[in-house]
Batch of 4 targets.
Target 1
Amino acid sequence: MSTEETSRFVRLRVELVLEVEDEGELTKAALRRLAADHDLPQEERNQAEEAVTEDTAEALAYLVDPFDLVSEVPGVELQQASWSSERIEYDPDSPDWDLDEDDGADDDEGGIG
């Protein structure tokens, strides 16, 4: 592939840390979304309902959709996406939580923050 062909593709990496203030509401929202998904086969629906009920991180992962994040961005088409969520210990004052640590880019190269 030439540079022209590969330069059309951009990998956007986003890392979020969210505080869940109401697990019950989050779970209810995930269950409502599952109930509204009429194309989901019953066996998969049962598995998804069990997962979002047992694990708040799963409920959040079910509600956050990368397509929703970029669907209104003009001039782009989502080609591939993957995401996951997990419970973590979080200390915002810890140097371990420097969000710019892994990007290898200077702040003036187009990031926010």
Target 2
Amino acid sequence: MTKIAVLGNGRVGGNLATALTRAGHEVTAVDRAPGAAASAARTAQVVINATPGAGSLERLTALREELRGKLLVDVSNATTDGPDGLPADLIHPGSSLAEQLQEALPDTRVVKTLNTMLFPVMTAPAALAQAPTAFLSGDDPQAKQTVRELLADLGWHEEWITDLGGIRTARATEAAILFVPHVIRANGFSPFAVSIAR
């Protein structure tokens, strides 16, 4: 059992919190109540960033002390929205939210994952007709191994997980968010994920 704080209790955070609780972990889902994030992060072993990506860097930098020595799993994408509310452009072109977080939080082990799919797939990958891919980006091998174990608890098979390398590789997966609005406009909000076919 791992003590996990999920920052953000919208569709993404709520979905992850429910699934990880069902898997036997001790999970606290945090809303925007003053002090709630700091309190939850202080006592957690793993913190999941499921806050809206546009404000994640500012929110998490404010928790630098609480996140010291912790594993931060970043599942958010930092984008500006178009008129229809769908992602239109990257906030950190030539970089990524995950890289910005790792730079701002040098004493925290940041791992990027689960950001290349619609949120229902995060906790039900087997529901898709074809196997999806969950990518890992991060500089700490042990942190990535812990994330692999959490992904397994969410139903991800080992062969569906691809370790891309260091945190710098997160800029590639974050850029994949630019596919999303076009796929949604073409096919609606049916769950989908980026998958590497071999």
Target 3
Amino acid sequence: MTELNAEDSKIITLARSSRARGGTAEGAAVRDETGRTYAATDVGLPSLRLSALQVAVAMAVSSGAESLEAAALVTAEEAVRDDDLAAVRDLGPKAPLHLAAPDGTLRTSLT
């Protein structure tokens, strides 16, 4: 299993906190090229459905981020959805995407 650095552990913690605070199915966090972090949960409105990672990436972009250093997704799901990976890759082609269980246990890291 991948050994996480302190900054990657931090975004998993932020994603877990967002998920718990919002009582949602998933939480995500991303870190941009300047070290700023953006945490989000999934959005499920009648007219708008976005995953937590899509929201976190959109927050980074709308705040002026030019690239991502890393991303984290906390969910009960066993795998990362293709559209979530695509959203991260749009802004961070080489950014690791860490998938963690709700308790914070790292399941996998996609690079």
Target 4
Amino acid sequence: MSNERRVVVRSLRLALPVVVLAMLAGCASPTPFKPADADDGFGYVDQTIETDRVRVAFAGNSVTSRQTVETYLLYRAAEVTVERGYDYFLTANRDVERNTSYFGNTTNYGGLGYGRYGDPWGYGGFGGIGTTDLRPIDSYTAFLDIKLFKGTKPSDQVNAYDARQILQNLGPSILRPGDARG
């Protein structure tokens, strides 16, 4: 391979991850408030534990903030409460998981030995210099167990939430599929 070709190949190897990341960042948008589907797994899921107990979860993608994930979780808990004919809920077993993956680039220079890169029959070399540039990318999944009740929310229960008030107060901040924000 000529030196000019090596320079072009090395430049493309260095530039490709940057171009891919820029394309992904341009196309990516936060997970909207929607049921989770098999395509991406992002959105909300409900699981009935008992007639008046439900586990609610919301999973966001890597551009959905933790605060948004927790807001959507609380909003979904309020929706479930009203849909099932209840007025308020008590929370229990609340948790947020952070999932971290890494995106980056590794570049190696030099080294001694013989054989070709990627050649399974070649022999590896030794020495050389390499750089690794990895960036963490976080996404969040929040879980909440709720117990549903009818009537007026007790004022002495700090874990009690009025479902209709939540729907009214958080509703304007909920991004649904197809909503344009910018």
